[in-house]
Fold this sequence. Notes:
Blueprint: E1 6-17, E2 27-39, E3 44-48, H1 55-62, E4 70-75, E5 78-79, H2 89-94, E6 95-98, H3 102-105, H4 112-116, H5 118-122, H6 129-139, H7 156-168, E7 174-178, H8 186-203, E8 206-211, H9 217-220, E9 223-228, E10 231-237, H10 238-243, H11 248-255
Parallel strand pairs: 3-8, 3-9, 6-7, 7-8
Antiparallel strand pairs: 1-2, 1-4, 4-5, 9-10
Helix pairs in contact: 6-7
The site of adenosine-5'-triphosphate has 12 residues, from strand 2 and helix 1.
Amino acid sequence: MTAALIEAEGLxxxxxxxPRRLFERAGxxxxxxxxxxxxxxGESVAIVGESGSGKSTLLRALLGLGHLDAGTVRFDGxxxxxxxxxxxxxxxxxxGLVFQDPYASFNPRRTIRQTVAEPLEAIGETADxxxxxxxxxDRLGLPADAAQRLPREFSGGQRQxxxxxxxxxxxxxxxxxxxxxxxLDVLVRRRILELLAELRRxxxxxxxxxxxxxxxxxxxxxxxxxxxxxxxxxxxxVARILEDPREPYTRELVASRPTLPPGxxxxx
Length: 268
Ligand SMILES: Nc1ncnc2c1ncn2[C@@H]1O[C@H](COP(=O)(O)OP(=O)(O)OP(=O)(O)O)[C@@H](O)[C@H]1O
């Protein structure tokens, strides 16, 4: 079998929990507990589960940003190790990240040009930064003068476009989103989801998106991984999971999701 883009085996991450009573010892909780996950190049996978199920911890582990108590992660066959001596520039070159609240991750005093160029600085590819920033801002439908302006001058939807521009400016093959549209209102959310689907097609991206919102999954992914209490309880094609969930927990999640907009399913 050829190497998958991401291969995770037996991942366990524990966090210490403070004692609840005076003479009780501190305990620990497994935020992720024995995760096996394989993502092929070009695939788009959504990780879903309620708050606290371990989605963000898993994402951090896959990117080498969080500690692991057990297990291994490989990216295109190469081990991902959370080691401060190795800043894993090779992995940063190949991945782009989009978070829920772009504003919180923008420096309010840096122009959009400086903000979007951040990954290029981080990986030491600044030679043609200006042209690359202009090209990606244009690709994301931002006005030509956006580069000189500051984050506060933009709406929520535009800020998320800027965040996506920053995630893609260095030409990564994997785009990772942690609740990338949760902070947006419904119409803007729809547009950003469609934009992500289009970018994925045009750029041949592999996508990994964490969300608590099952309603967005058909637009963003072909495969769903359902997490509960640090474990994967079910995984499969979007249509199968949404129409015929096998696990009681997934059935509950599906039943409680808001009605799907008459949207674009990419998974079938
Ligand atoms: N740094 C930390 N220290 C202690 N406990 C943590 C830490 N990070 C996560 N946890 C615990 O690990 C479990 C999983 O958290 P995680 O944030 O991965 O879940 P999540 O599914 O991403 O939740 P949300 O959707 O609310 O972000 C939770 O019980 C959480 O309290």
